[in-house]
Description:
With 210 residues, the chain is α+β, with helices and mostly antiparallel strands. It folds into 2 domains: 78 residues, Winged helix-like DNA-binding domain superfamily/Winged helix DNA-binding domain (Arc Repressor Mutant, subunit A, Orthogonal Bundle), CATH 1.10.10.10; 117 residues, Orthogonal Bundle (Arc Repressor Mutant, subunit A), CATH 1.10.10.10. The strands form 2 sheets. The protein has a 3-stranded antiparallel β-sheet. Helix 1 crosses helix 3 and helix 5 crosses helix 7. The radius of gyration is 20 Å and the shape is globular. The C terminus is likely disordered.
Amino acid sequence: MMYNNLKAMERDIEAILFASGEAVEVARLAGAVECDIETLEILIQRICQRYRQNESPIDIVQLDGAYQMCTKPQYGPVIRAALELKRAAALSQAALEVLAIVAYNQPVTRALVEQVRGVDCSSLIRSLTEKRLIEEAGRMNIPGKPIVYKTTANFLRCFGIAGISELPELPVPQGSPGGYEPSPEQLNEDKSDQPLGSIDAVTVITHAES
């Protein structure tokens, strides 16, 4: 396919992302419209700028080497009302801890997660997998060949980051030079209803590993 102008390429990119409904890898998208990755990124920026100028409810987000078309967050309530979608329940503190362990150590086995937390985590891992926040990423080449897990594109989308490199830095374990010292308010704070979108559980995990 030969392109005479950038606008035609932009329209094709929009059509692919709309029809896909899922994130499309950068290389595959660039190959479809016959351009290099640098040009593709420029075209995506042009599309997003047009959306902003037109106050469009549509946006294109980058998710770890892929792009996905989506609606802007402020339109969530009206979309849920129209499609009768239930708001996702907030993750428990225990689920957040497991999710953070996977996010910062991926790919990781269930055994390592349970070693850090000190309790069985099979049900939490199953729940996070069903919510498409983590997924199987193969097996380790050791006796028993345990399954390893990693985070998903849905995880990145839920936490509003483009890649794992954008995760906040882990706090320094208490007792080390310049170590993390929680305040009395943090120690007494009830986080049982902490919503998805926070990774504050890393504090718990850091202390568990130290």
